[in-house]
Design a protein that fits this description.
Two copies of one chain form a homodimer. The first copy, chain A, is α+β, with helices and mostly antiparallel strands. The first copy, chain A, has helices at 9-18, 161-169, 208-218, 233-246, 258-271, 304-322, 369-374; strands at 25-29, 42-43, 53-54, 58-61, 75-83, 97-101, 113-116, 120-123, 126-129, 139-140, 151-153, 174-178, 182-188, 192-193, 204-205, 222-229, 249-253, 273-277, 288-292, 295-300, 331-336, 340-341, 348-355, 358-361, 377-381, 387-388, 393-398. Chain A folds into four domains: 9-23 and 180-322, MoaB/Mog-like domain (Molybdenum Cofactor Biosythetic Enzyme, Chain A, 3-Layer(aba) Sandwich), CATH 3.40.980; 25-48 and 150-178, Molybdopterin biosynthesis moea protein, domain 2, CATH 3.90.105; 53-140, Molybdopterin biosynthesis moea protein, domain 3 (Molybdopterin biosynthesis moeA protein, domain 3), CATH 2.170.190.11; 331-396, Beta Barrel (Beta-clip), CATH 2.40.340.10.
Chain lengths: 401, 401
Amino acid sequence: MAFLKVVPLEKALEVVLSFDISPGVEEVELENALGRIVAEDIFSPLDVPPFDRATVDGYAVRAEDTFMASEASPVELRIVGEIHAGETPKIELHKGETAYISTGAMLPNGADAVIQFEDVERFDDRIRIYKPAYPGLGVMKKGADIEKGRLLVKKGTRLTFKETALLSAVGISRIKVFRRIRVGIISTGNEVILPGSELKPGQIYDINGRALADAVRELGGEGIFIGIAKDDRDSLKDLIRKAIMLSDIIVLSGGASGGMRDLTASVIEELGEIKIHGIAIQPGKPTIIGLVEGKPIFGLPGYPTSCLTNFTLLVAPLILKAYGREGRIKKVRARLKHKVFSVKGRRQFLPVKLQGDVAIPILKGSGAVTSFVDADGFIEIPENVESLEEGEEVEVTLFSF
Amino acid sequence: MAFLKVVPLEKALEVVLSFDISPGVEEVELENALGRIVAEDIFSPLDVPPFDRATVDGYAVRAEDTFMASEASPVELRIVGEIHAGETPKIELHKGETAYISTGAMLPNGADAVIQFEDVERFDDRIRIYKPAYPGLGVMKKGADIEKGRLLVKKGTRLTFKETALLSAVGISRIKVFRRIRVGIISTGNEVILPGSELKPGQIYDINGRALADAVRELGGEGIFIGIAKDDRDSLKDLIRKAIMLSDIIVLSGGASGGMRDLTASVIEELGEIKIHGIAIQPGKPTIIGLVEGKPIFGLPGYPTSCLTNFTLLVAPLILKAYGREGRIKKVRARLKHKVFSVKGRRQFLPVKLQGDVAIPILKGSGAVTSFVDADGFIEIPENVESLEEGEEVEVTLFSF
């Protein structure tokens, strides 16, 4: 067994990112696309506006007919029709002609400008114009807003209402999105029970199961809670087998006891292959990464803050890569509230709470639920650093996806 | 008709916030609660941990038995049993006794400390201890993490995986959340058609319908797209009646033409009551706010950026208030990329794009779809201000919910 041949984080990540997770693609209606991740570059199938469009209520003209207009010598044009928004113009403007046109309507052939109605005088079937109109006045030209063929939404984009609205504007009603990556979540430990069950003395409620399943959902995946494995071989094997049937990736979080950790490693080795067992980081030293029936399986620490830190460092990058969203882990810069110490030779990830741009280290211990809830993310204290100073600028990797 | 009796934004907001929208409450399983908005303060029903809990693998002891221990004169204790995680201890420690205990297990009666196994020597049924243990060593006390009765999640909180995990940790499996507020969305205009339909000359695809429906969803509501009203009385009345049956709030966005605006006002007045018609802001001057069968109805501008600005100023606050999330419109501070001008006496809201902490004014015109997509939010230029300077600090209200 590759037991605790500790490797650097970079090596572990290299192994993780070599796993081939293809979520597959599905087509969804635009109205159900919010929050989904686009599986291909989307280009505009048309010009917006799709025609030369009046931007004011007024009179469509041939600009050259008006070039000589002045206060002293107005130009008169004959009204040959009306064009309303949504209509296909049935008329064409010839020299000396004009047509009433409403905002949003399509310019008739021959016209290249729209003079707003406040700027002309109307007499029955004629208008009088007192100053020249230039070509393009009162008009949004075909394609001026969005040109046909323009890249609208890049592959890997997570759709907000901005993008769904943009796709609507170019008439796209169905789009290809990545199928949600299914992540099977298993909690472990004899003492751990599900919320909703009655707590017997000595038992505690599960936290990592819900945390991981919902973190996966926030990442755009489907978090499937498989169950809680007891501290025995058969229980763990059963749940891993079930997870393999239902998921693309399996994530276990360890029970508190050291025995559970060994059991997890040995069961993964029996069912598949351990690729990494031990990473030179704290927390996360005993983390396991393996493959069972071609599916990546992760054994993460049991303490909630440690579990989430390792999820963010190792599992989230795999999910993001599969979605074409490499490197989209959220990070912010902040200043450290007070000095913190580490141990030389230990690469440490320390949970912090953010208050504006100040990062407050959480020193309560990663076993506490309250540490987990307070933590907005973590900072790294590199191997060769023994302390970070008060006020020092740090990069905070966020627990927010 | 209360036509264009222009009122200040504050007056309009006062009217909006006086509307009584009670979304109602429903109970959901914790596993379906992510993203929902909590309808009551939630307090912890128990202590976490629910018992004094070993934080290391080792030996449970009565600390006072070890006070005299030293390298020169170790203390010996007799092992009377083992306690594993998840078990109810069947033993009690008396003077001179100890028990093997694993991490996460419940301390037996009598014990008040756990000495990790590396720090003792074991001989058959006895251990030898070389230094004193203080009460609480190797123990997380009952309630040390979360005390019973502590406020966990406040009413109005939108649940992220942090909160769902916290609720799981205290054993809560069902929670009361606000029912999603249903917002019926109507687009208007003869030239506007739905994406997926074939575009005829003179027609354009709808944008506001999708934008508003999905913005409402991002706000935690249910955006229901009702349809596109043609520029005639019956079409508009039919859709408003349908919207009233299906929704708690109705939002119309105007077609490009002025005639549509008048029609909307007259139909709302026929079906109900206009409360506000005209607000002293740009864009949004002709905005209509009314009540039809007790349900708030908004007539917003047709240009997408203007529509979204007015939605953010007027509709979003009503939805947030109903959820107990008053004032949770997202705002950030930024510096203006370059000088912008306004007209004295006009209170203007200008769309901006954010690049880091720099706000770049978007001057392309609010009719452009690309303006809408580029805009991250808007800044206000007050009535008595004619320009904002390059580098000036501005507050950006975000188009992000």
